[in-house]
Amino acid sequence: MLTLYTLGNEMLVKAGDVQWTTAGRGIVHAEGPTREFVLRGGELEGIQLWLNLPAAKKMMPAAYQHVKSEDMNVVENADKSISLKVVAGEQKGLYGRIETQTPVNVYMLKSNGEGEITIDIAQSHETLVYLLDGEAIVNKEQSLKKGFQQMVVFNQDGGHFNIRTTSQSNLLILSGEPIKEKVVQHGPYVMNTQTEVMEAMRDYQQGKMGFLPN
What is the CA radius of gyration of the chain? Predict the structure, then answer.
């Protein structure tokens, strides 16, 4: 996937890569398949996540980060049947290369078949596991299967959880400390008050977030 940003970035995001945009005071972007991909054809799958910024950081300068799949730190279970890419945050002493503005963990889990791994999470974090494909059992009781139940959300009452995969599987694991601030959202604008949303929309209309090349 080819991405363009008003910061001047033009990046080709390949399978397993991660791009992380901090919108801050405003940024404009566009993304789509490359010309070569359109001519060749095939399937293109991506996951887009939106994380809120605390009020104190909502007007920080915009920023962009891109980490290639092969550059990410990886945690493996004992028999190497499961690998866990650390995109952001920390796991088993390994750190993600993405710098975040609040305490956040982002992991990408891949299993070759049957396997089991325990993942440590701060008790102050809210946490979810999302199954992309395959089958898995969380904490020996919650079954996940593509096309059926694919997500589980945890209570803030423990410091770790267990995942057992029963087939080749891919899962996304997210956790973070709640910001606990009022949120007002309109389209792509997320602020703390309706007035701030209107101001952000005006900034965009006035070109303060920049322009993409034609």
Answer: 19
